[in-house]
Please model this.
Amino acid sequence: MQISYHGHSIVKIKTKGYTILIDPFITGNRLTDLSVKEEHSDVILLTHGHNDHVGDTVEIAKQSGALVVAPNELAEYLSWQGIKTHPMHIGGAHQFDFGKVKLTQAFHGSSYITNDQQIIYTGMPAGILLFIEGKVIYHAGDTALFSDMKLLGDIHPIDVAFLPIGDNFTMGPEDAARAVEFLKPKEVIPIHYNTFPVIEQDPQEFAKMVSFTSVRVMKSGDEFDI
Ligand code: NI
Ligand code: MN
Model:
């Protein structure tokens, strides 16, 4: 399968039969190389309800017929906008035709802010474990460091982990480096940095803090195969 990164927390996975998009925040994302009109995914996975993660989900789901998999309250809220959703919750796994999804805990918030300044709370935020074609991919979503990451790594040997390093709203580089020690993935990719001034980070500094795991610093549009 082919994995690509598209700025902020956007990750795209192309398997033999499916295109899976995680947290497609395109409009307003100064780092992304994606354009909403060109996205035709089969599945959209969402970690939580914040606007910089839900992003253009509704428009992409409407134009492509994608199934949106999200934490329960967020899935429910999005289903009212006329798209196909599959609600899940933390600790639960489900086997889909494209692969298995398991939601993990994330220490963060989850709400969607509407254009008319309403805050819609969307339950708990999550991380995503994806089991596809014999590989395990972990997208941590937005989260603080938590010691149960050790448990995640023990139960599910992780091939690729996407971890936020931006600080302020999530782990910063030092905590993310500790997260790598807990998770023990084969490879780690820093995300959720440099999109806004308050989350500016040098990913190479993060890379220097990590030992025993290879760090792949990706620019928007970069891809690799696993
Ligand atoms: Ni967030
Ligand atoms: Mn965020």
About this structure: Residues 48, 50, 53, 108, 142, 169 surround nickel (II) ion (ligand 1) (CB under 6 Å). The chain has one domain: 2-217. The longest helix spans residues 173-183.
